[in-house]
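ok so for the tutorial part 2 we go from a plain amino acid sequence to predicted structure tokens. step 1 is just haveing the sequence, like this:
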Amino acid sequence: MKTLLRTSALLLALAAALAACSQAPLTVPLDDFSIQVDAVGNTAGQVVYPKDAAQFSRPVVNVKTIQLKGQVTASYTAVQAPLTMTFYARTSDPNNAGCTDAGLAWICDASGETAISASYTFADGETQSITLGDPNPDVLADGINQGHIWIGAEVTSGAATGVTFDFTQMVAQVTVF
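step 2 — the prediction. this is what the tokens look like for a chain of 177 residues:
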């Protein structure tokens, strides 16, 4: 996710400036990227965030909403398949929100977190469409506007090792007014 946000930061700054001039929403294509995770277990009721927020330059014009859409292919070695998960985002430091420091990650109670996706079930090798920022496209925009964001996930069923999520054909749909 960090790669996605770094790649999109410059594009979003330009998109925000262009959209402000044209008063039209923009769709910005993003580079393909992958996320690799050593192990994914059942964290029902908990959201796992990376230890550090993704950091990037703030746009010249505030972004109102962002949705990220594209294709995701999941590949993994199943311990218990399939994997079902929901993505979350936050702009405030998990350390100040009562989350647990798990060394390389933060573990937060899902009841206090903001979902940015529906629940997705991934079979090994399966490709499917995904949308991040639906619901709550404003939380992604807040992160872009602040220059940092944590994006995490809750695995509600399944467990796996050697997990890779390949994100392709991703676009950011940006609204600035």
